[in-house]
Amino acid sequence: MEDEEDYKKLRSACNKYLRAYKRKWINDNINEIENDRANKNTKSFFQKIKEQKKQYKGVVTGIKEKNGRVVEEESQYKNVWIEHFKGLLFDEATEDESEATGDESEGMDEESCEKGEEEPSKPSTL
Description:
Residues 91-126 are annotated as: Disordered. This protein is mainly alpha-helical.
């Protein structure tokens, strides 16, 4: 329990310090921008404003498979996306419904999709 309380106190103090440091850094940047405006240094003024407006963009380092495992190798990304879109195109729920009603699915099946062929449409019987 003491370790947990010490950890919380240290974490709080650290976060407080980081917030103050960030606030000081932002204020320093604002002062530099104001000085550039006052000195009519427009190029530097607009560059610094543009830099301030940028937002953080994280780098994607992996994607999750259906089973929850994270794939980090770029060579395997393609396979994960192929499986994902196959799941969207050939939804198992619709296949189960068509089997229950005895209807044959029209359009494309999975094998012909991989070959790039389209299944001929079947005439309806009345």
